Amino acid sequence: xxxxxxxxxxxxxxxxxxxxxxxxxxxxxxxxxxxxxxxxxxxxxxxxxxxxxxxxxxxxxxxxxxxxxxxxxxxxxxxxxxxxxxxxxxxxxxxxxxxxxxxxxxxxxxxxxxxxxxxxxxxxxxxxxxxxxxxxxxxxxxxxxxxxxxxxxxxxxxxxxxxxxxxxxxxxxxxxxxxxxxxxxxxxxxxxxxxxxxxxxxxxxxxxxxxxxxxxxxxxxxxxxxxxxxxxxxxxxxxxxxxxxxxxxxxxxxxxxxxxxxxxxxxxxxxxxxxxxxxxxxxxxxxxxxxxxxxxxxxxxxxxxxxxxxxxxxxxxxxxxxxxxxxxxxxxxxxxxxxxxxxxxxxxxxxxxxxx
Length: 356
Description:
Layout lengths: L1 E6 L6 H16 L4 E6 L12 E5 L7 H14 L3 E5 L10 E5 L4 H4 L6 H16 L3 E4 L2 H11 L6 E3 L20 H4 L6 E4 L9 H13 L5 E5 L7 H9 L6 E4 L4 H9 L3 E4 L11 H5 L4 E4 L2 H7 L4 E3 L4 H12 L8 H6 L2 H12 L1
Helix pairs in contact: 1-14, 7-12
């Protein structure tokens, strides 16, 4: 059996790390299968195995070259079984393929620069999903939307139990009692946000919450960690307009041990998303047993149940009240069962069973 996998989309982000770990585990556990992998950056996929081959293809996802040049490469390679991520594939590819769909956030919260990119996305998404042998998604809401919006047959869809990334941090000999707050000039207790700046991330409402906390003299800061979020000019303007320059901190370049201490010395993380298919980016707080305050979304509740605290993401008052309680409560979470349930071995087994 030969499986071809398109990993041209890989970048240095959480979902890419999930895809890399998944593919690595597929290769290591399925020794009777030959894997051929397309990549744009070979350095992102380091493997120690003999049953795979990496092919460098410098063709950007969603580009015109993807439709023509990449399709010619696929035909030449005679790859009769492909695994694609999301909708990034040539329309004219006619062999059997499976699609791992990360979510449909751009259907609801359209982060497009113009109408051309919007309609190109919608067109390619619909055409490529309908032709998939199977669509593997991560939650019931996505499955329902595929059936209702795109008229995908129910037996064409499988829900894949995703996993959290376990190798986020490495052990360190740094003193965990080191005051990381002083290093980054954080003078109050703080929450962490580290999950992008798309429309669905609900950051406008989060800023409103911290503005109200500031007005009420409630001593609590917010740390925006990583994700180049400091480049968001609108977000920075909102911070200034609400007088929160001393209460909201943008921290981007940190060493792994510093990031670990930032999590460990925080009150917890806040996750105010309006939409989330699978919360891959909660891997860090799960690994470090950091308390989580999150949006009350069905799939988030399904995963975490009573192990975390919730609020309504559409209500500023709900978030505000939850933050106050959260900040004044000593929480000692235990995410062992969640990590055991959402594990890479189970996800790998599911994929192989579906493809075979």
